[in-house]
Amino acid sequence: MGRQVCEAIAATQDLELVAVVDPAEPGQQLRAFAGPVVPDLTVMRDVAALVDAGAQVAVDFTHAAAARTQLPWYAAHGVHAVVGTTGLTEDDLAAARSAFSDSPANAVVAANFAIGAALLVRFCELAAPVMDGVEVIELHHDEKRDAPSGTAMHTAERIAEARAAAGAGPFRDDPTTEVVLEGARGGAIAGIHVHSVRLPGMVAHEEVIFGALGQSLTLRHDAYDRRSFMPGVLLAVRLVPDRPGLTIGLGPLLGF
């Protein structure tokens, strides 16, 4: 993802890539693994390099433990943040919201930067109040660390919120009383079952199946290439300076 972000920014006319940070690869030349399209930059060890380079926006695709430290750092140093790191908890987001509320910088945190994935969540919100049940299946590559994905959790939460806002109430309780194999029904978020699949060859996929009397509705988004996330990342980089505080998800940037 880091390489894709660097290449995407380098290909724009209105954005400039000024620094690259990776504690695992300090001293490497960016062009050694991102090709000649990117600037001739040396990979730095510490995020302080962003301030030294005059960066206005940091794009952070790391892991949750690092993001917990880096989000307050961005806020304290006045650097806008676009964060695609998954695994952040509600407490993490609350801490980030507090940090950026007192900062001249702003942040956008999204579990998924694919515009199609944001549309899927919006369509789910429309379906949620009028269907009788739903389950979420997320499918990712076999090196993904967290399960379920942040996208799946966000989807389930938004479905539950949409039903509550419409006065539809929660879906009925799971009627399963005998679980023959532990975990067969997946996990539950706001009463909505979520299932995780990890297989080689996949990138990022989500399927949401709604059911009602005599019918079902399936909504699915497939990201076949990490480049699919770049239009959303670039949108967030361009808009984050004008989005005060913390923005969660790509939807608000798209107007929903």
How would the blueprint of this fold be written?
Elements: H1 2-10, H2 30-34, H3 48-52, E1 57-60, H4 64-76, E2 80-83, H5 90-101, E3 107-109, H6 115-127, E4 133-140, H7 150-166, E5 187-189, E6 192-198, E7 204-212, E8 215-223, H8 230-239, E9 246-248, H9 251-254
Parallel strand pairs: 1-2, 2-3, 3-9, 4-6
Antiparallel strand pairs: 4-7, 5-6, 7-8
Features:
9 helices, Dihydrodipicolinate Reductase, domain 2, 2 domains, 256 residues, Rossmann fold
Describe this protein's structure.
- The protein has 256 residues and is α/β, with parallel strands linked by helices.
- The chain has two domains: 2-109 and 227-254, NAD(P)-binding Rossmann-like Domain (Rossmann fold, 3-Layer(aba) Sandwich); 115-224, Dihydrodipicolinate Reductase, domain 2 (2-Layer Sandwich), CATH 3.30.360.10.
- The protein has helices at 2-10, 30-34, 48-52, 64-76, 90-101, 115-127, 150-166, 230-239, 251-254; strands at 57-60, 80-83, 107-109, 133-140, 187-189, 192-198, 204-212, 215-223, 246-248.
- It has a five-stranded mixed sheet.
- β5 and β6 form a beta hairpin.
- The mean pLDDT is 94.
